[in-house]
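Re: the 107-residue chain
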Amino acid sequence: YYALKVITKAGHVRPKDHERLTRELRVLTEVPPNPFLLRCHLAFESSTELFMMLDLVGGGDLFFHLEELIRAGFEGFPEPTVAVLIIGFGTSLFIGHRIFGRKGDNP
């Protein structure tokens, strides 16, 4: 399953916005398949919008789950969930470093 991310160009007219969107698209298209990372399978644009077809991830993002736990009275994620998140973050950082190198290495 896929999700379609739609970004209106009118709200992203500054050069920094363009750089950020270009970097996001590059990361999402160049990342190798991994259960912890989203991939962009297709990107296209109209005169007013940018479209990215991403992997569909059911259940919301990390902040959604954290807010739900806090509303339920918990002060954070349970330990097994934290272990999975740490593995996911570590994997993401490792893959990102392998693809893009250290910040100082990029022109």
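The helical segments are 15-30, 62-71, 79-100.
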